[in-house]
Amino acid sequence: MVKEKDYMFLKIISVLILCVLFFAYGCGEANKPRFTAEELAQMPLAQRTGLPEASGGFVFSVAGETITAGEVIAPVMESLRATAQANSFEQFKTRAGPLIKRIFLNKVSNILLYNQARKNAAENIDEALNKATEAEIRQFIGGFGGDYARAEETLKEMGMDWVSFRQYQRKMILIQSYIHQKLPEDRPITYREMMDYYNDMKEKFFTKPATLTFRLIDIEAEKLEPTDPNKDRLQLAKELADELVKRINAGEDFGGLAKQYSNGYRRQFGGLWKPVEPQSLAKPYDVLARQALVMGPGQIAGPIEVDGHIFIMKLEERDAKTVEPFEKVQSQIEGKIMFDRRRETIDKLTSQLMQEAEIENADKFIDFCLEQIYRTSNQ
Q1: Which neighbouring-strand residues pair with 311?
Q2: Any idea what DSSP says for residue 45?
Q3: DSSP letter at 276?
Q4: What does the alpha-carbon distance between residue 281 and residue 210 come to, in Å, rounded to a whole number?
Q5: Which element (helix H / strand E) includes 343?
Q6: How far apart are the C-alpha atoms of 47 and 347, rounded to whole Å?
Q7: For 113-168, how does the pLDDT look when each residue is reduced to its tens digit (9 = 90+)?
Q8: CA gap 149, 143 in Å, rounded
Q9: CATH number of the structural domain 207-322
Q10: Is 75 exposed, middle or buried (0-12, 13-18, 19+ CB in 10 A)?
Q11: Where exactly does CATH 3.10.50.40 map onto the chain?
């Protein structure tokens, strides 16, 4: 009889991999299944480079098992259809190839990891696996509010039924149990390690850049219709800008005037730009970043003439660059260092298994999958 603690151990391992997946993919709505078909196709995390080639045309053989082209194609067929229809095959191959390769390599690594896990599993593992699998299935159905029919319909959309889904969950739990056994015992994370990580990643992860939010009336002289033969378009643009500034200062709505007179791409939104980093503004709009430095929220600047444009800007908000202090993100850093250690172990493990497997012609199989998607999409 398998003890309750054996099941709990497997359940903990299952939770561990879900945490990794949430880190990688984020979370969805409460009534949605935890994984999309594409995510199911790609679990678990594995080494994605250095894989030897393998044999196969319609099917790909590895370690006594087969991967069909349909298994690789089905999860992403609909999402790639528009891309296939809008591009030549070579363009489609460049854009979709990395995704198909990633799905394929994860399926290969799943097979190799599962075979290795079965070899190393305890004799009494089946009962604990059955309990853990049934718990995962109940949790999956619970994601649909207990609606069995809706859960079953979602499985069909993923190309699975309850039998294949149960087999899949069983394999994933066993694989994660095996990976857990191979993880080194967690050594303490030192303060120096965390500080080094913080300093290295401060700009990338823990810094909120300075941003500007503003409304803009952008008058392009070349787009104005001449109304006076004695005046050129630039002169007319200047006169229009002067008139608009007077109307704004008199209390007229900036956004309404922007919708009516601006030639800018945010015209339909009343000239309101989304928050932007000042250094990201290209010419001729970079002048707005310099102007904003001497403005306060609500103030108007202009007319500003530059490269055939006449700008009138209203500063809505200016946020300074901020850096989160180490103390606030220390727990995140500790978790990331632990995640990286475990990911490195998993990558080494799967890389070793793939080097030991005799695999050939993987690229040909991937190309075949891409050709099938492209041909089907363009029929």
Answers
A1: 218, 304
A2: -
A3: B
A4: 13
A5: helix 326-356
A6: 5
A7: 888 888 888 878 888 888 999 999 999 999 999 999 999 998 888 778 899 999 88
A8: 12
A9: 3.10.50.40
A10: buried
A11: 207-322
